[in-house]
Amino acid sequence: MKTIIFDTLRSFTRNLRNPIDRVPSPCGSSIILWLLTCFAFLPGAQGQLSPPPDGCYPNFTTAEGCDALRSLASAPGNTAIGWRSLFSNTGGSFNTGVGAGALALNNGDSNTAIGAAALLLNNSGTQNTAVGADALVNNGTGSRNTAHGAFALFSNTAGSHNTAIGSHALENNTADSNSAIGDDALVANTTVLPTWPSVVLRSLITR
Questions:
Q1: Residue ranges of the domains in the chain?
Q2: Domain 56-207 adopts which CATH fold?
Q3: What values do phi and psi take at 188, rounded to 5?
Q4: What pTM was estimated for this model as a whole?
Q5: Based on the number of CB atoms within 10 Å of its own CB, is 35 exposed (0-12), middle (13-18) or buried (19 or more)?
Q6: Contacts of 74 (CB under 8 A, 6+ apart)
Q7: What pLDDT, in 10s, does the model give residues 62-103?
Q8: For the chain, which ranges sit under pLDDT 70?
């Protein structure tokens, strides 16, 4: 079987390299599909790594690390890598937690947390993105927030539609619809800012 497959593959690739005077065949894609199907049954095709990859579960789910996704029932599309990442998640779907404690208390949908304790206390908030240690760590019900940088949006619990890019940006924010770019940008802000400027740079801020 293996000899037949490789002979067919070599012949097929030769035809691809020498297309002159050759009319495209409608069966070309069928040949490729047939080859791929045959490869699945070759000895060792089911896994060459040693030890083989683990952490693959039903419903597009991946869990790797102590107690990662321990409470999950049947919600699909979750990925948890790290100590107790997505630990309490039972029904939240399409979440990604990478780092110790990332999204540990989460039960919302479509959240992404990368970094130790990122979105640690998130409960029902949805569509949040936190990248950095302790980014959005206290967020509980806020949604559609983006925090890039350690401690960005650190104190936010229920505020939504905020964007913080930079270490400690909007660290004390608890309001909605603020944007801050730069280390310590709007670090002391706790309220909704006027519509201008919609984006505040560090150079324009009085701490």
A1: 2-39, 56-207
A2: Alkaline Protease, subunit P, domain 1 (2.150.10)
A3: -100, 0
A4: 0.71
A5: middle
A6: 59
A7: 999 999 999 998 899 999 999 999 999 999 999 999 999 999
A8: 1-53, 193-207
Amino acid at 149: G
Token output for 183 = 């280390």
Considering only CA atoms, which of 45, 71, 75 is closest in space to residue 60? 75
